Amino acid sequence: MSRAVRVVWDDALVTYDFGPGHPLAPVRVELTMALAREMGVLDTVETTGCVPATDDEIALVHKRDYIEAVKTVSRDGRPDLRYGLGTEDNPAFAGVHEASALVTGATLAAARAVWDGTAEHAVNVAGGLHHAMPGAASGFCVYNDPAVAIAWLLSHGASRIAYVDVDVHHGDGVQAAFHDDPRVLTISLHESPRTLFPGTGFPHETGAEGTAVNVALPAGCGDAGWLRAFHAVVPPLLRHFRPQVLVTQQGCDSHALDPLAHLMLSLDGQRATYAALHRLAHETAGGRWIALGGGGYELVQVVPRAWTHLIAEAAGCPVDPGTPTPEAWRTYVTERTGEIPPLRMTDGRDPQWRDFSEGYDPADAVDRAVVATRKAVFPFHGLDPMP
C-alpha cells in the first residue's frame, strides 16, 4: 500500500460550470465523489479542502493582462473574445475567475502535499484543465492548473518533473508552457490531431532536447493498441528521465462511449493505465505522484467509475472490477440525472496487449504512430527507437 494519500475536494469545485448543455458538466465530478464515498474508497485516503490560487500563483503561467480579463468577465459575465472568453467552448459566466482559481488552488494543494512530503500521492479529479494557454482560454479550460502546479514545483526547487497526459486530446497548453524547458518532460498520448481538437500533438513537436513527446494514435484505437503504445513510449522515457515528481492528467474521454472523440478504450483498459502509472511513480519518481482529472464527457457511465478507480489505485486499494455499484449511488444518479446508472465497476473487458519488444508491424497504424514518436524523441535520450 502507498503511504499517505490525499484527495483534494471542496463542494464549491462544481461552480466551474459553463452552463446547461455544455459538455464539461460539473455533475461528472459530483457523481465521482459520491461513488467514491459510497464505495468506501474515501475511507482509505485523507480528504482535504483547498483555497483559490492567488493571482501571483496563476501568473506563474498566465499573463497578467489575461488574469485581469478573466476577473473582469467574472464580475459581469460579459464575453471578452480577445482572450477566448465567451466562445462556444468557453462561455463567459459570472464567477469564472473564482471558480477557475479554486480548481487551480486544488491542484496546488495536491502539489504542495506531495512536494513537502505530507502525502506520497495526491488526487484532484476536478483538475487537469490542460488546454488553457498563457494568454487565452481554450478547450473548456480557463486556467491551466497542471502547468501552474508544475511551475510552482519548479519555483520551489524541483529540477526534473515528468507530466504524462492520457486524455484523448493533446495536452497542448502544458506542452506550450514548458516547450523550451528541459526540466519538464511532457508526454501526451492522444487521438491524432488530423481527426480531433486541438490539431496539435504531432511526433515532430519535440520541444527542448526532446522533452515534448507526442503519441498521435489513429481513430478507432482500442485497449490493445493503446496499451501497446503506452508501454512502448512512457516507461522507457520515465526510467531515463528519473523525475522528482510525476504529474498525470487522467482524462477518460478515450473511452468508447465518449461523445466527443473516436478512440475505443474500455474502463478496464483505462484502469490498467492507472495501475501502470502508479507503478511508474514508485519506480521512477520516489513515489511522488500528483494525479488530476481532465476530459470525460460520458457523465454517468464512464467518468464516475473511471476516477473512482483512479482514487482507489492511488490509495493502493484497487477496486475489484466485478464489484457492483452501490444501490444508494444508483438511486442518487437516477434522481440527479434521470439516467440509468452502470451496475458494475467494469465494462467486462480483460485488456491484453503485445509488448513492442516483440516486433514492429509497419502495416499497423498504431505501430507506425509509435515508431514515429520513438524516432522523433528517443535519440535525444540515448534510447534505441526500434524494438
Automatic annotation (TrEMBL):
Stored Pfam families: Hist_deacetyl
Biological process, per Gene Ontology: acetoin catabolic process; epigenetic regulation of gene expression
GO terms assigned for molecular function: histone deacetylase activity
Pathway: Ketone degradation; acetoin degradation
Membrane-spanning segments: none
Stretches assigned to the Histone deacetylase domain: 22-312
Keywords: Acetoin catabolism
PANTHER family for this protein: HISTONE DEACETYLASE HDAC1, HISTONE DEACETYLASE HDAC1-RELATED
UniProt family annotation: Belongs to the histone deacetylase family.
Protein name according to UniProt: Acetoin utilization protein AcuC
Species per Swiss-Prot/TrEMBL record: Microbispora triticiradicis
